[in-house]
Amino acid sequence: MFECSRVYLDTLQSAAKIVINQGGTWSGKTYSILQVLCTHAVQQSNLVITVAGQDIPNLKAGPLRDMERILRSSAWLRSQVTSYNRTERVYEFASGTIMEFNSYDDEQDAKSGKRDYLFVNEANGIPYALFKQLALRVDKQVLIDYNPSAAFWVHELVLTNKELYPSVELLISDHRHNPFISDDMHAQIERLRHENEETWRVYARGLTGKVDGLVLKNVFVCDIIPADARFLAYGIDFGFTNDATGCLEVYLQNGELWVNELIYETGLTNPDISRRFKALGLKTHQEIIADSAEPKSIEELRRLGWYMTPARKGPDSILHGLDILQRYRINVTRRSTHLRAELAKYSWKKDRQGKTLNEPLDAFNHLIDPLRYVALNKLKSAANTQPKSRLPWQQNSSDGLGLGEMM
Q1: Gap between the Cα atoms of 233 and 249, Å rounded
Q2: pLDDT at 387
């Protein structure tokens, strides 16, 4: 039906009521769990399968995108899907099974509906009270996945409370269990050990840890960029095979930065990037600041009509750019899922004795780097960049989280 990994086989064969997939980066856990759910969907009739995420942007960037890849990889599986409601995010199968992708506002919202299978994606972004209400309404099996950057309610309650959760299996995976990524990617992940042992344990081995020493701690989640914020520039970092091309837009209001992710994708040529710019509505007079180490790409995009500027670099430009960013409150839109994930991992290197070094990891930075380029070119490094005022806290009617929500 489709190519699969050991993570798929172990998950499919588990008889536990709750199967926990704890995994490092690129372990393929989300993809494999969705393959398991597709297997149930075609082999069993009239099931209700719920894939729950912390919010709709994360579902679109993660499980929904993986589901599309799974269907593209198998013509036979596509033939078993009779319809897809893109608005409601519901797949219907020939077996009568439905698979819904949903997020829940609160504990009360989670009380609605029953299901046969539940998949809680990136569970450390979901409150325990909400999970409990969802899990109480599951007939067959609950599947959970997450990156173990720190212990949370799965470790503190689900894995330890045998009275409440008597049937639980923990599966730990990492990139070595994923046969579908390149040798270069495997090597890149392993190199984390030379930069930060704790980060390597979490993201290269899937072990529970605590990623400390984050470089940018002054980050908050917002829903939208204020209409009267002043546009500074776009930032872009070029990638291709293993590294994603990352592009974002940066605004300034009341001494605070407002940032929105636009592109995070591998395999883009410069003409592809130009087409993405047009589709996103970028104007040719708006400045795009790029990595100065890519003069050929900058020139090609200039010839395609875009206002390209190389980032100002010099001695210690990385630390200088980060120093500028640390002086601002940085508001990141909720839909900037890849940028938020990078900011949660981007930390200082440590030596073998665990001492923090004054050098950031050269990883998790495909969107942080273009943000730094904008800072280098557009922001002053003087110490007079403290916020002049704060916008009032605003409640969002859809999720109860306002502009003051921490990352």
Answers
A1: 6
A2: 41
